[in-house]
Each structure stands twice: as C-alpha cells, then as structure tokens.
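Why this split exists: single-chain examples teach little about how molecules sit against one another. For that reason, every record in the complexes split bundles all components of an assembly together and asks for one structure covering all of them. Below is a record exactly as it appears in the raw files.
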Amino acid sequence: MSTPSDRDAFAELYDELAAELLRYLWRRCGDRAQAEDLLSVVFLEAWRRRAALRPGAPTRPWLYGIATNVVRNHHRALRRHRAALERIAAAAGPASAPGADEQATVQRRLAEALGALRALPRREQDVVALCAWSQLSYEEAATALGVPVGTVRSRLSRARRRLADVSAPPVTKEPRHEPA
Amino acid sequence: MSPLDAPPIPDVLARPARARRAALLAELHAPAVRGRRRLLPAAAAVAALALGAVLIPTLREGGGETALAVTREGNWLELRIQDAGASGAELTRELRDAGVDGEVRVIGVPADLVGTWVVIEEASKRPAPSPRAGEETVRLNTIDFGRELLRLPIAQVRESDGHFILWAGREAQPGEDVAADRAAFNQWFVDRQARERRPAP
C-alpha cells in the first residue's frame, strides 16, 4: 500500500531497526559505506515486498531475511536500486566518517572475523551471523531464512564444530622416546 | 576472540547517517523499480483489463455506494474494493463504467484476505515462447500493490501493450476448501496457474 500510514510505519521501522541492521550488514560485507547503501536497499526492497508481509507477522526477522538476501545478491540488489541510491546519496550529501581511527580498528577486526566466517558454507554463515552475531532467536532466524527451526539448530551446530576445529590450537605430537 | 563472537561495533559507528533517512523515506513515495517478467511479491494475479482505450476523465471520484472505488490520485489510478461480497461481474461492470475496459475476478481466500486484492498480473499480448511458459509478464512491479489499495500508474494504463488481470478475495463458500493463510494461498494459486498452463496430454 502507499498510504501515509504505511510510510509512517516504515519510518518507525527504520528508527527501530536501522542501527542493528546496519551492524548486521557491516559485519556481513566488511565495509561501512557499502553497508549504508545495502541498508537503504533493504528498506527499498522491504517497501517493494510489503504486500507479502502478513498482518501481525513479526517485522524484525522479515527484515533480517531481506537483509540476508541482499547480502547474498548484493551486486544485483545494488544494480536494481542504483537510481534510487544515487538520488539518496545526492539528497543526503557527502557521507560522514565518524571516528576514523576507531573505524579502522573495527574494520581490521571485522576482516579477521569475516575470514573465519567465510570459511563456512554459505548457509552456515547465515545462521552464525543471524543467531550468534545478531542475537536472533532460532525461531526468528528460521523465519528470516524460510527454513524450519530444526534446520537452523543443525546448521548452527555444524558451524560451531567447524569453527571450533579452525580456532583450536594445532595439535602436535611429542616425539616418541623409546625406552633405552 | 571466537569466530562465534560478534565483532564489536561501537554505537557511534553503527548509527545510520541521519540525512540518508529522510532521503530514503522520500524514495518510498516513488513507484517500484521497473523490470520485465517480474511477479508481484504476493505471487501472481489474473483478470483482464484490456486497457487500450482508457477514459481517465470519466472516472468517478470516491466510491459512494459502489462495490469498487476508482479514483485518480495524481499520476495514479487507485482501485479499492468496497463491497467484499460483490461478484466479479459487478466489480468488472463498475470498472468499465469508470472508463476502464477490464475485468475483475473473485476467488475464495483465507478470512484475513477477504475484500482485498490477492493477485495481480499484467500479461503481454504477445505469444509466449512456449505453451508451458504461459503469457509473458510485463512491467508488473511498476504497479503499487497493496492488499487494500491497488495503484496503477496512469501512463502504464494508457500505454500498456498487455492486459491487467486482477483477483479480489471473497469469503469461502459453504464446503469450499480454501488455503489456511496467505502463504498457502499464494502457493496454491501459483500451482493452480501452472496446472492451467500445462498443455493437455
């Protein structure tokens, strides 16, 4: 719908969830400027798909689901909304870069974390980013990904095992000393 | 730090730029992105508005006692169902009375979808590449599709080389088996269309 109340509802949704979605997108893509663009794309996509949201359905996992798809297909998503993003950038003026030093530190840590995350299969990356990084419940993650809750649990469990294997200290064998 | 721990991002850095908020919300007034062969999110819809000769100036303002409210709002044509019990023929007649040569069909739906638009499609008049593919869908996501308010860009209505097909939700009839919710309805509808498009053995 395109009534003023719809737009007001979206403005409220933005105020409520934009910061946490920006965090999620930044962690997933590793770049703050791109995450801001992707955040705009998430809300543009949500607006486009708003008729698909059932009345009373929770919006947070729905938006995370859209955000996850946007991350997965970010080239296509950015291309689709290129004109709107250009208008948004032009209207918003030059991007500010708060705390350049702090941002550099965050970027470095993100790069390390993303390196480990990207070693996982894509589906496991999604559940780690949703459940472990963004604190979505299993039910919310299941809604976001459109899979059963049990699938979220099993993917997260497999991801934990894989990540534990990767992050554990290497096992070395002591040379065996034969008794003289 | 374990890879399962979220890489920390201080609050000050996680605040989206304020100026972008207003610019983004301004974009939500605009119609959706154009594209071809794109179904609306709720799935597909079918009915026939052969919209070649649209008499926009004759549109009624407001709804009055009509089953269908057809109004012009800026560059948009807005369609709202006022009587959820109206028949497809009645809705279609009112659409045509308003100067739009078209058709609305009604279909049994879950209770929360009664009196709403449930599926929309603008189909090309060109032949499909194969019988299985059905008609080619055109420019669908230029339509602003809301459950209660359907908005068609007037330029598209005037220039359309295809036809719009609109389905309105009605109450299930006694003994009629309808889907439990919207998702189930969408899937049922898509399956139904696929069955209808399948060539006879």
